[in-house]
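Forwarding these from the shared drive since the link keeps breaking.
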Amino acid sequence: MELERVREYFFRQGLSEIEPSELRHLEFKPSLAFTDGKNRIFVNVFPVGSLTSRNALIKFMMETAALREQCNKIYVVVPKLMATVIDSELLRDMGIGLIVYSGREIKEVVKARELKPKVPVDIDVLEEIKQISGKLKMLEDMISRLEFQVEKIAEEVSKIKVVRVAAAAEEKVVAEDAEAPKVEAEGLPSYMRDNPWLEILRQRGSE
C-alpha cells in the first residue's frame, strides 16, 4: 500500500519508473527507482512491519547510504510518527531526502541534494549492454556455423585430392601398359604376329 502511494507521488512529479531488472546488478536495491530521463532517483521505503525494531532502522539507513553512489538523488520514506526519531540534519548532510506520510497525506520534509555517483549514471547503458550482448551472441553463433562449414569443405577438398591422385596414378599405369609391346608365348612382340613382310623375309632367309 505504501509503495503504491509513493509511486503515485513521484509519478505526479513527472518521473518515470525504472524497471527492477535494470537494477539487478546492485548489491543493495531501493524500494523504488525513477528517472526524469537524465537523472536516476532512488526511493527507500521503510517497511511498516519493522517500526519497533531499532536494528531494522539502522540497517535500513546503512543500505540507503550505500545507494548514494549509484544514483543522482535518493529519498527515504517513513511514517510521520517515525520521523521524530530520524536526525533530519544528518540526512541533509548526507544529501538524503526525507518524505513522510500519514493517512492520505504524503510530504517532502527534507529536500534531496543532487549527488555525484562514482560511475556516471546513464539510464540507457544497461539496455545498450543487453543489445550489444545479443549481437555478440549472434556473431558467435555465426562464427561457429562458418567454422563448421569450413571444416566440412576442407574434408571434401581432401577427399577430392585423394581421388584425383588415385585417378592420376591409375591413368599412368594404363598409359605405361598401352606403350609396352605385348609379347606372345613364343617371345615375339604382338606387332610381329601375322605380319606378311616378316613372313617374306623369313622365307628369303631360308633360301
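-- next protein --
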Amino acid sequence: MSEATEKTELVRRSRPAVSSAASAGGDDDKDGPTIKVGEVIDALGVGRFQALLTVFAGLLLLGESMGITLIGIVGRTIQCQWQLPNLRLAIFSLAIFMGFLLFCPLWGFLADQHGRRGVMILGMAFTGYYMLISALSPSFEWLVFLRTVAGAFMATTPQGLVYMVECCPATARAYLLNIGFVVWSVGPVLELAVALGLNAAGVGNETWRILVILSALPIIGSCGAYWLVPETPRFYLVHGQMDKCKASLRHIARVNGRESDFDWDKLRISQEAKTAEAPRVKWLFSRRLRSLTLGLAAISFLTNFTYYGGVLFAQQLVQESGMSNSVAEVLQSSCGGADCRPLSQRDYVNLLVTALSEVPGTVIALSVSAYLERRRMLQVTAGLAGGFTLLLMLSSLAPRSAPLLVSLLFFARGSAVVTINISNIYAPEAFPTRVRALGVGLIQLTGKCGCILTPLIAQVVMPASRIAGLVVYAGAFVVVVLLAAFCLSRETKDADLEDH
C-alpha cells in the first residue's frame, strides 16, 4: 500500500473511532486517534483552497516581477529624461533591492513569531501604496527614496511561498508553486507589452509613470486576497495553539469539500515539543542547519546576481546590436546627456522576445517537477544557464548579430529563472517550521545582495569590459552546481515538512 493510500485510510478510520468514543461518553482526547498536520493536509488533497492560494501567490509574484522589470525600462527612460550618468542609473537600480536587503530578515522574524498572513497583508498594503506614489516622483531623489521604501515592504513577498508550502500536500507543492512561477514569468512579458503599446501610442516621457501604476495593481489585489484565508496550521502547531490549528485545518477541509472526512471535535493533532522562545538567527547556524543555510545563501546570491544582471545588460546588448561597431558610439549611447537614446520600438520587441524565454522555462519546470529531485533540477538548470552565458560571452567577440544575441539571451535567461525558482521551492521545504520564515528571509537577503552588486557589473563594468563581466556571470553558475551537489544533503521532493 502506498504512503498516500495509507494516509487516506487513516482519515477514513479516524471518524468512526472518534464517533464511537463520543457515543460511549469516554475521554475524547485519550480515545481519539492522533494524526500529524502534514497527514491531514495530504489526505485533504488538492482542492479549491489550494487553487485560491495559487491565484493569490500568482498575484503576489506577478506584482513583484513587474516591479523588478521596471528597473530596466524606467532606468533607461529617466536616464535620458533627467540627464543621469551611469553611476546614478546604478543607484536607481539598487533602490528597491536595498529595501529588500534591509528588511527581509526582519519580516521573516515577525512571520515566525506573529504569523505569515498578517505580515503579508501589512507588507502588500504598504508596497502598493508606495509604488503608486512613486509614480508621482518630481525628481530622481524622490524616486529613489520611494522605491527603496516600496522594496522594504515588498520584502514580505517570500512569505507567500512559505504560506503555500505549509498549506499544500507534499506531492503537489512543487507543481502548485511552479504554477505561481509561470505567472511570475508572465510579469516581464506583460510589462514590456504594455510599454511597447505606450511607446507606439506616443505617450513619451510619461510612459514610465503609467507602468509604475500598473505594476502596483497586482500587489494591491494580493493584499485583499489574503484577508480571505486563515493563518497556516503549522504556525499554530509550533506555537502550541492546537484549537486554532484544528480550526485552520477545518477551514481548508471546508473549502475543499472534505470537512466530513474528520470528526473535528474529537480529532487529536500530534504535537512535538514546543517553545515560546522567539526564533533566533543562531538556530539557522546550528550543527544541523549550518550546511543548509550557508549552501542556500550562496546559491541565492549567485543565481540572483546572474539573473538580474542578465535583465539589466539585455537592454545594452539589444541596443548595441543595431548600431555601428564603434566603441565610442556604443559608450556614448549608454551615458546620460544630449545624445542619450531611449529604448526604441525595435528594442522593446527584442526585449519582449527575451522576456518570453522565462515562460517556456517555467512551463518545462512545471512539467518535470513531479519526477525530478529538487537538487538534480538545480544542478541541471544552473549548468545550462552557465553554458548559455558562456556562449553569449564568446559571441561578443564576433560581429554583433541581433538574432544571435536575442537567442542566447532567450536560453540563458530562461534557464537562470528556472534555477531561481527551484531554489525558492527548496528553501521553504528544507527549513523547519519554527524558523522557516526567518530562514527564507535570510536566503532572500543574500539574494538581494547579489541584486545590489550586479548593477555595478552590468551597468558600470560591462560597458568598459564586456568579456570580464560575462566571465563573472558564467562562472557564478558553475559554483551553483557545485554547491547544490555538496551542501544540500536533504531531498525534499514529496517529503513531509519538519516543524522543529
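The chain is about 75% helix and 0% strand. The CA atoms of residues 315 and 351 lie 7 Å apart.

- D.
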